[in-house]
Amino acid sequence: MSKKMQNWTVPLIAVFLGMIAGAVLMLIFGYNPIFAYNDLLYTSLFSSVKNIGEVLAQTGPLILIALGFAVSSKAGFFNVGLPGQALAGWFVAAWFALLHPDFPKPVSILATVLIALIAGGLIGSIPGILRAYLGTSEVIVTIMMNYIVLYLTQGLIGNFSKSIMRTTEATQKVSQSSSYQTDFLRNLTEGSHFNLGFFMALIAVVIIWFLMKKTKTGYEITAVGL
């Protein structure tokens, strides 16, 4: 099988096997997997424009997380810490947006993106540094970092300033100037949560592709993996 064909078939086989595993679990618990997958596909793709918008809203973060895994995998490392890295980015971005609700929308969006990138990168750098200088397993350390970030953010949320808390466990909503949602996208998808994050994820795909295929750094990452 050619390398190009393998790049297409391996992900498809992975999806197919995942669906089979899901079907087996549904059968064990007494559910019909054919009906379940039919409802899943129909609801997400054909039932309404709003549902399609909701699917695309969820797709953006998943694309970004997948890119994080793809780069580390290309270098031959298994990054299991993406949930923690993403959570750290989301946390500091939301915190910044809550503390600065009156910033202009372009400034707020750019600032939250950069802050989230830095926070996620710092969390990801810890297992990277430990691997590089102490030879620790990145799998074990990234798994542990997920829980460290989870409990740390939970503790910090519990000690937020009362002015940005709605309840003891939930913050106020971010202002419109800090939100990635726009009236145009909301109206286009009948009031869904579809937002600018999806387009940012597509831009990130192009950037990572260029990095890996057209730059010296990308060649070095691939060479390390090989």
How would you describe the overall organization of this protein?
Helix 3 runs parallel beside helix 8 and helix 8 (197-214) packs across helix 9. The mean pLDDT is 91. The two termini are 19 Å apart. The chain contains 9 helices and no strands. With 226 residues, the chain is mainly alpha-helical.
Overall mean pLDDT stands at 91
- Provide the helix percentage: over 70%
Distance from N terminus to C terminus (CA atoms, Å) equals 19 Å
Radius of gyration: 20 Å
Write down the overall geometry.
globular
- What characterizes the major β-sheet? none
Strand content: under 5%
The number of strands is: 0
Number of helices: 9
Brief characterization of the structure:
With 226 residues, this protein is mainly α.
Produce the secondary structure layout:
Elements: H1 3-28, H2 33-45, H3 49-74, H4 82-99, H5 105-134, H6 138-158, H7 183-188, H8 197-214, H9 216-225
Helix pairs in contact: 3-8, 3-9, 4-5, 4-6, 5-6, 8-9
Search tags:
mainly alpha, 74% helix, 9 helices, 226 residues
